[in-house]
Design a protein that fits this description.
CATH architecture of the largest domain: 2-Layer Sandwich
Number of domains: 3
Structural class: alpha+beta
Number of strands: 14
Largest sheet: 8 strands, mixed
CATH topology of the largest domain: Beta-Lactamase
CATH class of the largest domain: Alpha Beta
CATH superfamily of the largest domain: GAF domain
Number of helices: 16
Radius of gyration: 23 Å
Shape: globular
Distance between the termini: 77 Å
Order of helices and strands: HHHHEEEHEEEHEEEHHHHHHEHEHEHEEH
């Protein structure tokens, strides 16, 4: 074991002491986490640095990767480890750091498809513990020729405090934003975005239900649900007046439903994990495979697989994904099937937080269906809550939260 003096004289400490400045930057938390991962990768050095946060999602209580350096970008937000599983989950559960020269030899090791992390078997996991509870885990990995030393362990422990600081600052900013929103409650707020599909419409903000909300404690006939979803989409396609290009987009996307291999994988995952966790696991696996092969077709297919999983869960729950007249809020750009479902359910508009251009399949489908769409809306989830009145201007790329009576009257008069 190194002495305290040896650790204090480690020149890498100088850079560790600069991490709080990165952690306190007034930027979105995911950007702060990524910057911290980059700096820690350079300090140690390490080929892979990841931070996982403890969250509840469609697979239950999980550790979800929220930032990473060294793995494909798609891993962030898609790699989820059930709490207590894998070396990372074990470190969180026992609230103690774990260091291994060969991760695969550990009894807790769990392989994640699509990461090829076998290239980096040297493994160090440091739990992010606050008030007697693990809120996440910082994981660093190296090649087999550079195992972690006790010096490295001490530095990782010191570096982990920066993530605690980043979480605290993010929570403070959320409270401040909530207070500002409370002051502005009832007042008109203008959000700028990018116009994707034209038109103006008024509706109440609505979120897509999660798989857990749709399918928790549900059981049903998967094959029957897949067939019902297929029939629903085919009937809907006949009702909408889509152009040739948008119609071709939908036909390509719905091929997922005819794929016997996909169907068997779906049944297998659900039988092994349960409905919501199985659907979520399959969608994540397709997303990771698409990134690993860098295939644009597979990336589009993974989006449609995720859509099919939601549609199947909704079918089994006898619940629509969205309601007529609602303004549908989406964190990520939708694929063809979600866009088609939104049009079939006659939503008033679709608003997307992520950047999106008008030449994507979802843009073409909604434009042909006459549904206004605005994307790349900064601050969407800071200012908008489910049930808020929204006026979506797909011509100018604007979203008005709690629009004034005069603005609503002007919209109605123009119709």
């Amino acid at each position: 074991m190194p002495t305290a003096m040896e650790i204090l004289e480690d020149p890498r400490l100088d850079r560790v002491f600069l991490l709080p400045a990165l952690a306190s930057a007034n930027r979105p938390l995911n950007q702060v986490f990524h910057a911290l991962c980059e700096e820690i990768a350079a300090i140690l050095p390490a080929e892979v640095v990841s931070v996982y946060l403890r969250e509840s999602d469609d697979e239950g209580d999980v550790l979800l990767m929220r930032a990473n350096v060294g793995f494909p970008e798609i891993a962030v937000g898609n790699v989820a480890l059930p709490f207590g599983e894998g070396i990372t989950g074990f470190a969180a559960e026992c609230m103690r750091p774990v260091i291994r020269e060969q991760a695969e030899t550990d009894a807790h090791y769990r392989r994640v498809d699509g990461l090829d992390e076998e290239r980096f078997p040297a493994f160090l996991a440091w739990p992010l513990v606050r008030t007697g509870r693990a809120d996440g885990v910082l994981v660093v990995q190296r090649s087999a020729t550079h195992p972690f030393s006790d010096h490295d362990l001490a530095l990782v422990g010191a570096s982990a405090t920066a993530f605690h600081l980043a979480l605290a600052f993010a929570e403070q900013r959320r409270k401040e934003a909530s207070a500002q929103r409370g002051v502005a409650e009832g007042r008109e707020v203008r959000l700028q975005g990018h116009a994707v599909a034209p038109g103006e419409s008024l509706g109440r903000a609505e979120l897509l239900p999660t798989l857990r909300e749709l399918a928790e404690d549900q059981d049903g006939d998967l094959e029957g649900a897949l067939d019902a979803v297929t029939r629903h989409l085919e009937r809907g396609l006949g009702k909408l007046e889509l152009g040739p290009e948008a119609r071709a987009d939908v036909m390509r996307a719905r091929l997922v439903l005819d794929d016997a291999r996909f169907r068997s994988e779906l049944v297998r995952e659900v039988e092994a994990r349960g409905l919501a966790p199985g659907l979520a696991s399959l969608a994540r696996r397709y997303a990771l495979s698409a990134e690993r092969t860098a295939d644009g077709w597979l990336a589009d297919r993974s989006a449609e697989v995720a859509a099919v999983c939601r549609l199947v869960a909704a079918q089994i729950a006898h619940r629509p994904l969205c309601r007529p007249g609602s303004a549908l809020l989406l964190a990520e750009r939708p694929g063809s099937l979600i866009a088609l479902e939104a049009a079939l359910r006659r939503v008033s508009a679709v608003v997307v937080a992520e950047p999106l251009n008008e030449n994507t399949p979802s843009g073409r489908i909604l434009r042909d269906a006459g549904v206004p769409m605005v994307a790349d809306v900064a601050g969407l989830y800071d200012w908008v809550r489910p049930g808020d009145a929204l006026l979506v201007d797909g011509d100018k790329g604007l979203v008005w939260v709690s629009p004034s009576e005069s603005r609503i009257a002007k919209l109605k008069a123009s119709r």
